[in-house]
Design goal:
The protein is α+β, with helices and mostly antiparallel strands and 670 residues long. It contains 18 helices and 30 strands. The chain has an 8-stranded antiparallel β-sheet with strand order 12-11-22-21-20-19-18-17, with helices on both faces. Helix 6 packs parallel to helix 10.
Length: 670
């Protein structure tokens, strides 16, 4: 595959990797509704594109790029793409150089990339077959760069589709779960553990204000003697913690400490951002709604520890890459700042006890009244609890399960309010009931006003068409019903909490495998399909999304040549100390090792010239070693997080000793 085609494919596919991965967000551009002339579907399109639609299909142009929207009669997607291309381009002439599949919230889209050899232009066709029809979005441009710039329009059109066969459950009351439904769910979960290679999981299902079911499946760790998971086994819940932090903030709004619209600097006067204009605009809600304009900024968390004071200082380093309240940008540092500023509002003292006060508030305002005795924000106590599931991930090279060291999980202690909680299925069931009860605990105590709880569910910024972010929650829909959810991913755990407020139904899935959100989503959707007696179609989509995730991980190491001796001299100039306390060393057994105060990562070379590496312990991360202005630098990228995730560049500040004894390591095997 040429670099041009690979780059084009990764950008378009990457923009749509929704399930389990942070996604490429869209600016809040004005959209219009496009209606199929035959009445078979509607979708959305950016209003800035000129509408030149015909009586047969949609046509939209901007500069040198043209986007077409069509439906053709074909129950199979491959012949459907052929028919759609023939409809729009009777004399096409493009050569199909790549076919891939892309997971999106509204299904699996097949993508073909064509090159026109006569002029070097590109056509990309994306299509999905639903029933007897194939729906297609086809875009034509003079270069791969032009199509990359058209990604917002492509994504808007794809995710805006409303198919004729859409199910509407509005006003439909699901029956109570019975033993047969529970048995079917149990069987599916058991099979899914094996299919997705998840060591263990715990689930909870609540309905009509009651805990219907909790249970554990599989094992806490790998190995024949591993202890079984129970409903009281602790798991890290990652970013689900965000919804707990915003609930805490809502209680403070109830108490009059501030309002959602209060300027942040009125609560914490030393709050500082690199952009002083934005700093003055920021309201309390903007700390937790991912609409600030700040980008994803996670790499430092894997390299150094952060106190709350360190975190506030780090905010000054984060560049502004988006428009305030115009573009979604997932930023853990800001959400953590929201939790710590809540602690300051409650009387914490800067430089002394911010983190301690935050944890105490979560205990007294949430965990104790809700009845969550096992839930904790204390990393040490969780790992010493005796009933903690062990974290696991997929090996970056061969994608088999490997344990994750506790040091890698500690990265979340630096942004504790954004992702540092541990919990159990039993505790999370009670948290779900409190949400569905609009702020009333299972024991009948109101801990937050319904008004302020609902505010956390209210869309604040569009992520993608049909998907918005609130205050610590993702808001989407399930067959016409509001669907409130948030996933939680760490270095070795994946979790998902989801509820349908109008149906008084919710599900929690906790698992001990990183990048496991296709598993958690499949288990959740199977329960909802059982509840409404729907055909079990979601499982296939999530299984295909899992296959695509693994293909994307494989792509990152596609140039790796196994069993080739590695010469340590290849790394000589890069060994040494880098900025932020990062060191690069060569180990005779492990090869190149990147170390910091919080983690040790084994770097696997993935290119013939050994210029790019992936950490064995962190699949989806890429480390590039190169030279800039004559100085060795390490560039750390997270391509699966999308282009809005900032790469980090660390310059070497002290080379290793030239007399260091480095011997050749033969047959290096990651």
């Amino acid at each position: 595959m040429t670099a041009r085609v690979r780059g084009l494919a990764l950008i378009i596919v990457g923009a749509l990797l929704i399930v389990g991965l942070p996604i490429t967000a869209l600016a809040q551009d004005e959209t219009i509704v496009y209606e199929d002339p035959a009445g078979r579907f509607t979708t959305q399109m950016l209003a800035a594109w000129a509408d030149e639609s015909t009586e047969a299909y949609g046509v939209f142009r901007q500069d040198e790029v043209t986007l077409y929207i069509a439906a053709v009669e074909s129950p199979a997607v491959e012949p459907g793409i052929d028919a759609a291309v023939a409809l729009i381009f009777p004399e096409f002439g493009g050569v199909n150089v790549q076919t891939t599949q892309t997971a999106a919230p509204n299904g699996i889209w097949t993508q073909r990339v064509y090159i026109h050899l006569n002029d070097g232009s590109f056509t990309v066709a994306l299509a999905q077959a639903v029933g007897d029809l194939t729906y297609a979005v086809i875009v034509r441009g003079p270069s791969d760069e032009s199509l990359q710039l058209a990604n917002p329009a492509i994504t808007t059109a794809l995710l805006g589709f409303t198919f004729a066969e859409a199910i509407d459950l509005t006003g439909v009351e699901p029956p109570p779960f019975d033993d047969a439904m529970i048995a079917a769910w149990e069987a599916f979960i058991t099979d899914a553990l094996a299919a997705y290679e998840v060591p263990g999981a715990a689930v909870a299902l609540v309905q009509n204000g009651e805990v219907v079911y909790t249970n554990g499946f599989g094992a806490r760790t790998l190995g024949a003697d591993a202890e079984p998971v129970t409903s009281d086994t602790l798991f890290m819940i990652g970013s689900i913690t965000k919804s707990m932090t915003t609930l805490l903030m809502g209680t403070q709004v109830d108490d009059g400490l501030y309002d959602w619209e209060t300027p942040v600097t009125d609560v914490y006067r030393d709050f500082t951002l690199i952009d002083r204009g934005l700093q003055g605009q920021m309201r309390m809600r903007d700390l937790v709604n991912h609409a600030s304009g700040l980008p994803r900024y996670d790499v430092p968390l894997f390299l150094e520890s952060f106190t709350p004071e360190d975190l506030f200082a780090e905010l000054v380093r984060i560049p502004v890459t988006g428009e305030y309240r115009e573009q979604f940008g997932y930023n853990n540092f800001l959400v953590a700042a929201g939790g710590y500023i809540a602690a300051l509002a409650a009387g914490a003292t800067y430089g002394e006890d911010i983190d301690a006060v935050y944890r105490a508030l979560m205990q007294t305002e949430l965990f104790d009244p809700i009845g969550m005795p096992h839930t904790t924000l204390d990393f040490r106590s969780a790992f010493l609890s005796g009933d903690l599931a062990g974290p696991h991930t997929l090996s970056a090279l061969r994608q088999h399960l490997i344990p994750v060291g506790s040091d890698l999980e500690q990265f979340l202690t630096g942004v504790r309010p954004a992702g540092g909680a541990f919990s159990t299925a039993e505790d999370m069931a009670r948290y779900l009931i409190t949400q569905l009860n609009r702020g009333v605990t299972p024991d009948g105590e109101r801990i937050i006003s319904e008004r302020n709880l609902r505010e956390t569910w209210t869309p604040q910024i569009q992520i993608l068409p049909g998907q918005d972010y609130g205050l610590g929650w993702v808001i989407t829909q399930y067959n016409g019903l509001a669907r409130i959810q948030h996933d939680g991913g760490t270095a070795g755990f994946s979790a998902l909490i989801t509820f349908l407020p109008d149906a008084d139904l919710g599900v929690v899935v906790l698992s001990n495998r990183a990048l496991g959100s296709n598993f958690t989503a499949a288990v959740t959707d199977y329960a909802f399909e059982l509840a409404y007696g729907l055909a079990h179609t979601a499982a296939e989509d999530h299984a295909r999304a899992e296959a695509m995730l693994r293909a994307a991980l494989t792509q990152l190491v596609s140039d790796y040549i196994p069993d080739v001796p590695v010469e340590p001299s290849d790394y000589d100039e890069y060994l040494g100390v880098y900025q932020r306390g990062v060191t690069l060393d060569f180990d005779q057994n492990d090869g190149l090792v990147l170390s910091s105060e919080v983690s040790t990562l084994t770097l696997i070379p993935t290119s013939p010239d050994f210029g790019e590496f992936v950490p064995r312990e962190l699949p989806g991360v890429v480390v590039e070693l190169t030279n800039e202005d004559g100085r060795p630098v390490a560039i750390v990228r997270t391509p699966l997080f999308g282009p809005e995730s900032l790469p980090f560049v660390f310059s070497q500040i002290q080379p290793a000793s030239e007399t260091e004894d480095i011997t050749e390591m033969e047959n290096f095997e990651p």
